[in-house]
Amino acid sequence: MFRVARASQYLAITGGGIDDIKLSKKSWVFPWQSCTVFDVSPVNYTFKVQAMSAEKLPFVLPAVFTIGPRVDNTEALILYARLISPHDKESNHVKELVEGVIEGETRVLAAAMTMEEIFKGTKEFKKEVFDKVQLELDQFGLVIYNANVKQLVDVPGHEYFSYLGQKTQMEAANQARIDVAEAKMKGEIGSKERTGLTLQNAAKIDAESKIIAMQRQGEGTKEEIKVKSEVKVFENQKEADVAKANAELAMKKAAWTKDAKVAEVEATKAVALREAELQTQVEKMNALTRTEKLKAEFLSKASVEYETKVQEANWELYKKQKQAEAVLYEKQKQAEARKAEADAAFYAKQKEAEGLVALASAQGTYLKTLLGAVENDYSCLRDFLMINNGLYQEIAKTNAIAIKDLQPKISVWNQGGEQGIGGGSGSGNGMKEIAGLYKMLPPVLDTVYEQTGMQPPAWIGTLSK
Q1: Which bin fits 247, alpha (ψ -120 to 50), beta or left (φ > 0)?
Q2: For residues 123 and 129, what is the distance between their CA atoms, to the nearest angstrom?
Q3: How far is CA 394 from the centre of its chain?
Q4: Is the dihedral of CA 114, 116, 118, 121 positive or negative?
Q5: What is 208-251 written as a DSSP string?
Q6: pLDDT single digits (tens) 231-258
Q7: Which residues form the Band domain (predicted)?
Q8: 141-178 pLDDT per residue, tens
């Protein structure tokens, strides 16, 4: 069969005539060969990697990796065909494999960097993660086409970035307020200065205009005084007017100077007052900033202490569990040993009983054979067994040992002839037996006395000492 792969596919052929794996876009596939079609287009994998910085601050790193087989390297493509292509590239197996590699390298790299280094050096951090993950993916024939590392996210219960953003916002807001206050202060001062200058220039121009008008009027008057006889009076009158105008001008100048100085003093006081207000606000914001910083430090310290206490408690629990498991294991082994000893003792007793049963069975067979040989004569069998087992010899030996050191005392009693008893031989046979019995009493009683020290009853008689 002739097989043709699509543009994003490859044929992986194995079987007869092929040593390992043959990759091709089109090829003949014979009945003794197997052909698998796999896709080499990259796939996007989205992860949220939880890691911890060198200060033990946890964070979440959202990332999107575009990963696919390395199509420009035949060996890498063969690795992918051998290890990954049997599975669906969007299956949980491949996703867990890629996710495990990315999470492992990300956590190892993050543990060696502080939070500030990770936050400020996002580009370098991304490059390090990219390089480390690529080294691990090379063994599967995979390559990273694109890696998009998003902004770091706080783990619930650890709002480091939230506090950092609030701190930045407060600093920017404080700086903006200070800039606005300074600009407003400069605007108010400039406005007052411009207003004062305008008033001063207007007063100066009015005074100069009046002087010029008076001068021209005086010149005209002088021309008339030359003709008239009352020039002197008119000149004095005009001089008085000029003096009055000068006095009015001086008074106005003094008033303007006073207003300008008052405005300057008011502007200075307003600036000082505004500076004091701004300084108060700055101190308040600095106090708030220090308070937030101390809160963040205390929270971080408390979090670290909590994590440390939790780890220590877990370690103590783990040690106690292991100790309990060791004690339990030792008890189990002791019980097993005792059981094994009991089994061994039982086995030994069982074998001993089996040996006794076998011995008894053999002896029974032996006795039956002997009994058959002596034609069921039990007395003959008994005598044979006693002789065969040396029982008679043992009895003789025991009796010899028993009487070896004895020194028996033999007493001989003689009571005279038997004819004197009963007065005759014919009728005295019965009396002989009675006489013989009485003859036996003295030696018996004497022997009992010597052996036990007991005297016979008085009614029988007394022994001679």
Answers
A1: alpha
A2: 10
A3: 83
A4: negative
A5: HHHHHHHHHHHHHHHHHHHHSTTHHHHHHHHHHHHHHHHHHHHH
A6: 676 777 778 888 888 888 888 888 888 8
A7: 11-184
A8: 888 888 777 666 555 655 555 555 556 566 666 666 67
Confidence class of residue 421 from pLDDT cuts 50, 70 and 90? very low
Output Rg (C-alpha) for the chain, integer angstroms: 68
Q: What angle do CA 64, 65, 66 make, to 5 degrees?
A: 125
Q: How many angstroms separate the CA atoms of 151 and 153, rounded?
A: 6
Helix (H) or strand (E) holding 333, with range, is helix 231-373
pTM: 0.32
Closest to 5 measured CA to CA, from 44, 39, 55: 39
Q: List residues bridging with 155 in a β-sheet.
A: 158
Answer for the pair 449, 461: CB distance below 8 angstroms, yes or no.
no
Neighbours of 142 (CB within 10 A): 26
Strands 33-39 and 26-28: unpaired
Cα separation, 67 vs 69, whole angstroms = 7
Phi, psi of 217, deg, nearest 5: -65, -40
CA separation for the pair 439, 49 (Å, rounded) = 127
Higher pLDDT, 382 or 174: 382
Residue appearing with tokens 């002789």: 387
Q: What is the distance between the alpha carbons of residues 164 and 300, in angstroms, rounded to a whole number?
A: 13
- Give the C-alpha distances (Å, rounded to integers) separating 76 from 62, 79, 80, 102, 194: 28, 5, 6, 19, 80
Q: Output the six-digit token pair for 393.
A: 């010899």
Instruction: Check: CB of residue 59 under 8 Å from CB of residue 53.
Output: yes
The single residue listed with the structure tokens 């043709």 is: 4
CA distance 190 to 181: 14
CA dihedral 91→97→98→104, nearest 10 degrees, is 150
- Residue 204 to residues 46, 59, 198, 208, 248, Cα–Cα distance (Å): 79, 73, 10, 6, 12
Cβ neighbours for 442, distance < 8 A, ≥ 6 positions apart: 413, 463
